[in-house]
Amino acid sequence: MSSTSSRRLNYDNINPHVKAAQYAVRGELAVKSEEYRAKLARGDTDLPFKEVISANIGNPQQLDQKPITFFRQVLSILENPKLLDHEDVLVKHMEYKPDVIERAKWLLKAVGSVGAYSASNGAPAIRQRIAEFLERRDGFPANEADIYLSGGASSGVNTLLHIICAGPETGILIPIPQYPLYTASLSILNATPVPYYLEEHHHWGTDLTSIKKACEDAKAKGTDVRAIVIINPGNPTGASLSEEDVRSVIEFAREERLVIMADEVYQTNVFVGRFHSFKAALRQMQKENPGKYDSVELASLHSISKGMVGECGHRGGYFELVGFDDKVQAEIYKFVSITLCAPVIGQCLVELMCNPPREGEPSFELYNEEYTGIYEGLQKRATALHEAFAQMEGVECDRPQGSMYLFPTITVPPRAVEEARKEGRRPDEFYSMRLLEATGVCVVPGSGFGQKDGTQHFRTTFLAPGTEWVGSMVKFHKEFMDQYR
Ligand SMILES: Cc1ncc(COP(=O)(O)O)c(C=O)c1O
What GO terms in the biological process aspect are recorded for it (predicted)? Predict the structure, then answer.
């Protein structure tokens, strides 16, 4: 082994943009929570809790969400096509329904083998099936050539930002609070995030006045603002945009010539109102005003990680482009080619997500029961957590609207702010660290997503089953306030 001094790489000479990137969802608290988990697994009994609850990340199956049977049955055949030599056993003894076998055969024909690379932008037959899904969802045609399969939405965001960002002068409008993938990626690309604040007192809605101001201010500083990111439904806020809001963002993007990046990974996690896709709104506006919106460039992203699918470990997603220049699209194709293709098993899951069993098909009943059970379970847990927050002193939390998170405001008492300062932490980090140490519940401090100056929040998922951990949060909060009030 070489000595430290002879190593070519050290902390001071590696890419500074990587060092500057921050990703709180898997930051210090998450690392510490994993240490606690390992301690508990070793049988350590000196911690004041018996379990670590990873409420820091939307990772449904880590928190006991069961995979949907139809999806996994099809995948099992894709991974082991020899099972098809014993179809009778699958049907008679393993409860595989005929549509499982049919779908697996169709997918095997579409991809050849899940162990083979596919086309760079994804298997053509799968792209076609996604286009059909989009057509059913939006009521407007979709073209498979404009669809790019990706290893989760994260990889799609990475591709798009690489294409859009040409240097430090490129600015991208980012909602605050936001999922830190965006600021972290811009940091790595050495481009400029242009933050716009969401309106907490209007259910975390998108306020066009604040977007316009952020854009104007950035332009005045010489930033070349090129794109706007919209997370709908929101992470960490859960807010779903109204159709009117979606249309006004499109109008603004047209006026300012901004690419719209619509992150729609939570499109089925909606409890209040309903999901309005940017694609449907744009096509509708184009129909109403022929020619006016033809130059709007939209990239919308979806994923198998969220919703009731929750297959984030399989890494699958796609983005659809509308209105992009052909030569730009060719460069996007080249860019995705450099990493060869998205995981093919993940691509197959995207196909299954987009085309689940339909009413009347053999697997429908069980699929529907599982899907509805997950949806209702999430809603119930979100409501229970919301009710718990309502009892907590100085905590305010908007009603659960969607996605997988609640993002309460906390009031950290001045004495705790002072303690935090001594530890070199922000008040919300101090609160979240004490919460983890006392209860084993790992949340993410609001500062990891961005928050208005002077406000403190944390983000928690409502994925974890049971109520014990919620009770332990309530107890901790009371003790924290009693200690520092
Ligand atoms: C808003 C948002 N976009 C993208 C992603 C990334 O998802 P994926 O697992 O598909 O990469 C997440 C993950 O939490 C998210 O919350």
Answer: L-alanine catabolic process
